[in-house]
Amino acid sequence: MRAGFIGLGAMGAHMARNLHKAGMLATVWNRTAATARDFARETGVPAAPSPAALAAGVDAVVLCVSADDDVLEVVAQIAPAVRAGALVIDCSTVGAATARSAAARLAERGASFLDCPVSGGVEGARDATLAVMCGGDAAAFERARPLLAAMGRAVTHFGPSGAGQAAKATNQIMCAGIIRAVAEAMAFARAQQLPLEPLVETLGKGAGSSWYFVNRAPNMIRGSFPAGFRVRLHAKDLGICRAMAAEMGATLPVVESMLDEYAQLIEQGYGDEDISADYRLKAALFPGP
Questions:
Q1: Right CATH number for 3-160 from 3.40.1080.10, 3.40.50.300, 3.90.700.10, 3.40.50.720?
Q2: 168 is known as an active-site residue
Q3: What would the pLDDT profile of 43-92 be if each residue is shown by its tens digit?
Q4: Of 168, 205, 236, 282, which one is the catalytic site residue?
Q5: pTM greater than the 0.90 cutoff
Q6: What span, in angstroms and rounded, lies between the C-alpha atoms of 56 and 65?
Q7: In the chain, what are the domain boundaries?
Q8: What percent of the residues of the chain are helix, what percent strand, and what percent coil, each to the nearest 5?
Q9: Is 3.40.50.300 the CATH classification of the domain at 166-283?
């Protein structure tokens, strides 16, 4: 299967490289053309001049872009050119309604759309160990499975269009609570003057451990928060969770409190740091020198 990849950001570039390693990547496109040219020089995979040109020459288009409007814009550009029977696999995190809209638009062209958001951070994208949550037609999912398996370790079909995004929203709510708890715990531990490296090593094997604790508590120890998952992007995702819950008449306390904290971080200029930067707010809770 010949695939094209659109969106070579922090996650997408690694995912595209893994498709290339699997021998399935035929072409790439990125909004910033220089990024696509750099990728082409690195891998030998040609950069397409436009999303439409990319879609016209492949059996599957994989997207990994930032927001709902980006997905709908790309779908509008590729729809006139996409092949009948082609797959369009969206690994972005957007609303379930956006996924259903994109699926309907591409169905008019005889193409199948799958919403397949991912989780696992840049490490998972790099190592092809992502969790991939899929919504859409079951037969299309089976055809897409080899592509998805080249990018992720746990690949699951959850139901019709939008189900993958609903599963990802569930994940993002969990991440909000976990990173907030880890930040608060690490600020407490530092205030108690505990040796933090041995603490992470030990508690990482305990009942309170999590991926975020093991992989992001070291950021908190160093006071350095290189972007794995940016604050402003998780805030965007939690806004999706808020809207989906509101459609059912619900308010989610974890989401609301985390959105408040992210708003503070963004206002302070930390919106492009990793979400582990929530530690900045928690450390400020403890008076000290």
A1: 3.40.50.720
A2: yes
A3: 999 999 999 999 999 999 999 998 999 999 999 999 999 999 999 999 99
A4: 168
A5: yes
A6: 20
A7: 3-160, 166-283
A8: 55, 15, 30
A9: no
